[in-house]
Amino acid sequence: MKKGISTRCVHAGEEPEPTTGAMGTPIFQNTTYLYPNPDLPKADDARVGDYYIYTRYNNPTVEALERKVADLEGAGSAVAFASGMAAISTTLLTIAGKGGHIVSARDLYGGTYSLMRDILPSLGIEVTFVDTRDAHSFGRALRDDTRMVYCESITNPVLKVADIPELAGIAHAASVPLVVDATFSTPVNQNPLSLGADVVVHSGTKYLGGHSDVVSGVVATNDELAHDIRERMIFLGGCIDPSAAWLLIRGLKTLELRVARQNVTARWLAEYLEGQPKVRSSLHPEMESHPDNELAQRVLRGGGGMVTFELEDLEACHRCLDAFEVITVAPSLGGIESIVSLPVDTSHWELDDEELASLDISRGHVRLSVGIEDIEDLREDLLRGLDAV
């Protein structure tokens, strides 16, 4: 019988270390191994990454992390990276191949969008961007040379929800994989592979680590594709350091506890903000007023810890943020501390007004990553900010 999510967060992928009996996975902070290793005989059909030889290829601490994420996502294998962008770029390059075409949702993290808009075309990989909410547009954009369909489970920053089952059906009808960035949803709120996706990627820097102290990324998929992605990672060099892998393992142990609390707090605060006269709009997937609420109930187990609300203009946003005492003004998200940022100053700073409008992003949008602080303290801080507007 499959164990519960919190139990698997704690135990999956790990066993007491056999030499010392240590309960936690040690940090194997070494670069190289005996070769051939007498305790790990190399099978005739073994492939690079299947055995320990050099930490850029594989490492016991990293391997424990990968087993844990694979278990949480219901995947055959996982591959860990030095950052979320390393995970995304390596996955895209592996699947798209030379001269391939990608159909992607237009609503993306700014770094992913810049990669697809500016860098991949220079490598001969074309990308067609479509509306996350228009599943049929994905089908219309498919071509004979399309190699994948790509989306984010919950978009950044206006929290649109992707219809993964429908997009998977569209992708599979064309015999291409669906790749989903599930950073915002986490394995607690959604498992894209169980909904039909073929590959799931995470910026481990965010919720998986959860303490704003490690930069990392992870990809989870079937064994064969994971091997191909690992092989590409080995030669591109985006491997994760064992110490960072250990921090991610530690963070994952409390993932369910953190996300469960953030789900509840974020929804409550979003509904509270919706009732404030200075707030033009408030977004959270579990709110009835959210355009994708019905879909969210079908594809998500929780709405996540992100809230996006809109004030009159950028000047009002700055006055609001300057008044906060508990909530920290900073980039990134997903940590135990509540962090607020303005998309036009951070994740989407490269986009002009026309591009922002195409994504339904205004210069008055505020993105709040809800932490685990007391809900009343966060409410008071938000009210303090709004009073300054």
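Next protein, fold it too.
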Amino acid sequence: MKRWIRIFIISVFAIAAVSLVLIQFYQTRRTFSINDNMFNIGVGNAMDEVVKQLDGDSRPDADQPVTSFSYQELDSLVAEQLLLNGIDIRPEVGLYNGSERSFLYSSDPRHEKELEESPYRYNFHPVGVVSNNQFFITLAFPRTELFLQRNSKLFVYMSFFLLLIIAAMFIISLRALAIQRKLDQMKSEFINNMTHEIKTPLSTISLACEMLRDETISQDSASRQNFIGIINDENQRMRVLVETILQSAKMSNKNFRINPKDVDVHRIIEKVTQSFALTLSNRNGKLETRLEADPSVIVADELHLTNLVYNLIDNGIKYSTDAPDITVSTAIVNGMFELRVSDHGIGISKEDQKHVFEKFYRVSTGNVHNVKGFGIGLNYVAQVVKLHQGHITLESELGQGSTFIITLPLQ
């Protein structure tokens, strides 16, 4: 996907998401406003009925004397009428003398300040209280906001939940597109590198064959053996490359199984190191072996173990700017077979070390442009170690070289 298309899609989604948030905010404010009005109307209707009933109860009949106002009935009557009007919050109730700024009655004296400042006040003059002062029934709702939120919270929660789902799906889609783009790029690089890697030994073999056709060279036994050795080495190199690619592809299958048997690791190391003799000679390099493990026979897949050793040594040679200096050592550590492959090459940065065993990942080589490869060698090595129930670690510093430490069970 082109960059401008991704930017356009992200911009459209960002505008849509912000618009949805603003609309949601407006709708929430409007919902609270409507609920607040409905709440006030419900309280007003309930208190009209309360005042009406209290006036009727306290007004004397023709044959009855005037009685005092009953404060005890005020709380229960207010709660009853509020509930009938859809409000199940029980408020604090007070009978307030507006002229003298004092309470004749309050359901809880601790809340008299809230009752005095409450906007919910209703004119009422209790019969039996002789006074020209103005009296009010006042209500204080300490949880009015909670009541309003409860009536609209389902709508609000569902809206935000759906918005979060949309945002999450969009982010996942973008991430999937980015991963797919990265994979496509890595596969393209892999094909290009693989073509170059195979083309190089083919060209070398072709050149060696041309030289062998020259009668002056073919008659020289030393030169002939040299070119035959080149052909053999390049053929071995190409075989390992192809084998690594094929085996790495097979390992992607969850049902893939190795073929373990008793193998002598030292014999494998000696065989692999011999195949690098010409390459090291041409670059004035050296390869030292310290084979100290006893026993050296473990249960493993010989083919994959051979390719593992080859890849690690080849990796050390490729990432050495000067004459390669490779050390391969073995030992028995804590009942495990330990294989170390060290080089004095360019080293690997801390950031690259996090991804070095990922498929198609290639370590940045800075100004070094002659390093070839296709990014599956170390991934293949890690898969082989895992299949053998072993463990692989990397110790490296930039400019100081790298050491790959592999531990494998003896049985």
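About the second fold: The chain is about 55% helix and 15% strand.
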